[in-house]
Amino acid sequence: PVWLRENSIPELQGREANEGVILVAIFESMPWWVWLIAVMFFIGLVIRMLPKSVHTLAAEGNIRAFRKIAKSQGNTGLEAVASDGGTPLYLAAANGHEELVKMLLSHDVSVNTTTNDGQTPLHGAALAGQLGIIKLLGKFCSRIQRIDGGVDTTH
Question: Would you call 88 exposed, middle or buried from its count of C-beta atoms within 10 A (0-12, 13-18, 19+)?
Answer without folding.
Answer: buried
